[in-house]
Automatic annotation (TrEMBL):
It comes from Abyssibacter profundi. Residues 49-228 form the Alanine racemase N-terminal domain. Belongs to the pyridoxal phosphate-binding protein YggS/PROSC family. Its cofactor is pyridoxal 5'-phosphate. Pfam families: Ala_racemase_N. This is Pyridoxal phosphate homeostasis protein. The modification N6-(pyridoxal phosphate)lysine is found at K42. Keywords: Pyridoxal phosphate.
Length: 233
């Protein structure tokens, strides 16, 4: 049927995304470089990831431990900050605490405790963001917005973790989600002034997110190309 797709030009895509981020920063009156770009590498071939890291991509996001295990060898000198952005199973916390610099998808006390306990001695505390189910979708993980402060208080007690802020994946078309996340971020700052990171915005909504105050965007398809389908060859 369709011929094999020509390989996606990740370097051209990277330039375009950097431009989109820069424009959005400018439009929002934000400082150039104030938004961190995380490449969401889920299930992507390692070659594109290697090219992006060589080109300067400094933050990589992973949803699944199996993908991460395949991707981590691309960065033996640990030049990149690795972010875990997917649902976390208890039996993966030790590996995540060992290999990652950030966890953006924290929404359970038990997982927070395990990550804190399992963070290797001698490494800086693991940076964490609390995931908020801001569009209150039954199918999505994340905290209810009214649970954020109570959970933040628990996380602040864990010596292996450093609370940096919030993460969310708004439902498509939920324009209220962006100001709601900005408000939650202000609420969290009132509780603990050290938080500095709002991870909001993906390929389709990064401009909206940056306008609302996102300091971190997680970009998958617009950076790596369409996600590979289960192999048919
Ligand atoms: C896949 C994914 C992204 C990137 O989504 P795109 O729409 O492909 O840019 C960002 N964040 C999370 C948590 C994801 O799972």
């Amino acid at each position: 049927m369709t011929p094999a797709t020509k390989s996606f030009d990740v370097l051209a895509a990277y330039r375009q995304i950097c431009e989109r981020v820069a424009k959005a920063e400018h439009a929002a009156g934000r400082d150039p470089g104030s938004v961190t770009l995380v490449g969401a590498a889920k299930a992507q071939p390692i070659e594109g990831l290697r090219q992006l890291i060589d080109a300067g991509l400094a933050h990589v996001g992973e949803n699944y431990w199996q993908d991460a295990a395949a991707h981590l060898p691309v960065d033996p000198a640990h030049r990149v900050a690795w972010h875990f952005i997917g649902p976390i199973q208890s039996n993966k916390t030790a590996a995540i605490a060992q290999h990652f610099d950030w966890v953006q998808s924290l929404d359970r006390e038990k997982i927070a405790q395990r990550l804190s306990d399992q963070r290797p001695a001698g490494r800086p505390a693991l940076n964490v963001l609390l995931q908020v189910n801001i569009s209150q979708e039954d199918s999505k993980s994340g905290l209810r917005p009214d649970r954020v402060s109570a959970f933040a208080t628990q996380v602040l007690d864990k010596p292996g973790l450093r609370l940096r802020g919030l993460m969310a994946i708004p439902a498509p078309g939920d324009s209220d989600a962006y100001p709601a996340m900005a408000a939650l971020m202000n609420q969290l700052r009132a509780l603990t002034p050290g938080v500095d990171t709002l991870s909001l915005g993906m390929s389709a909504d990064l401009e909206t997110a940056i306008a609302a105050g996102a300091t971190m965007v997680r970009i998958g398809t617009a950076l790596f190309g369409p996600r590979p389908q289960p192999s048919s060859t």
